[in-house]
């Protein structure tokens, strides 16, 4: 490695259910770049498992708005979008005060990365690094609330209590709802949902029999079959917000019978953009500021179930894929 260059360990998905850790040299930062040493990166057990399993649609970029994820979904590829780290080197065109700052960036899993400051979010001093790793999922939960626009006294149902579902439950619990019901089959996630403010927890097998006439339903389970559950628990002119991304899995939905007559509203929700109705007053930065505040109030660190060294990534993905780990949120940790 030549003078002025830094080394990084990058995680690559090389084929379905195969990963590789690659050691790569990084050049010195250009005038307006910084070098960041990663402390933690969060695993997305939804979208990231689609990448691991080879279930992402091949004709789409990994993300249409994030510079670090512009490549198409073909192997080999990098993935990940929740890195929290410390700036260890600053380009000549930047204020030296950037050095040592704790930052968040939408970056694939890597021990070090180069980026410009426009691609960073400064982590507020009162927010721990592990909590900061929840910024993307908290922003997603904020976006889901804004897209669904829950009203006072409504009956709201959340299908799925993965990390996004749990954070969504925590945010919805702040609203004066008549009832907040979550549908989840795993006992540990049911318990967390109750801690976060759910009024009632229902197993997926019993949802259609126990829930009816919901005003607003969120589908964030990642399971296409849950769309029919969403229809089954809805009422007249109910709103169904679809926050899951199913990748290349078929997502069929029964829109006959009552679904047709009930004038249901199906709303697809994705965090890359701000809802058009809000763009006169809201932008991404305002939504980030709200997400930081929700992190302060919701204490997402309680959702961390596993912290693993990046060197053990292969075992972590295998166990996630085989559902041998009772995982809510797993983080990769990067030793010095």
Task: Give a topology summary.
Layout: E1 6-15, E2 18-26, E3 33-42, H1 47-53, E4 83-90, E5 102-105, E6 112-116, E7 120-122, H2 129-132, H3 135-148, E8 155-159, H4 163-172, E9 179-183, H5 187-195, E10 200-202, H6 207-210, E11 214-219, H7 226-232, E12 234-242, H8 258-261, E13 265-268, H9 284-298, E14 304-309, H10 313-321, E15 329-333
Parallel strand pairs: 8-9, 8-11, 9-10, 11-12, 12-13, 14-15
Antiparallel strand pairs: 1-2, 3-4, 3-6, 3-15, 4-5, 5-7
Please characterize this protein's 3D structure:
By secondary structure, this protein is of the alpha/beta class. The chain has two domains: 6-133 and 299-333, Alpha-Beta Complex (Quinone Oxidoreductase, Chain A, domain 1); 136-276, Rossmann fold. Helices cover 25% and strands 27% of the residues. The protein is built from ten helices and 15 strands. Strands 3, 4, 5, 6, 7, 14 and 15 form a seven-stranded mixed sheet that branches. A six-stranded parallel sheet has the order 10-9-8-11-12-13, sandwiched between helices. It has a two-stranded antiparallel ribbon with strand order 1-2. Helix 3 (135-148) packs across helix 4 and helix 3 packs across helix 9 (284-298). The longest helix is centred in the C-terminal third of the chain and has 15 residues, at 284-298.
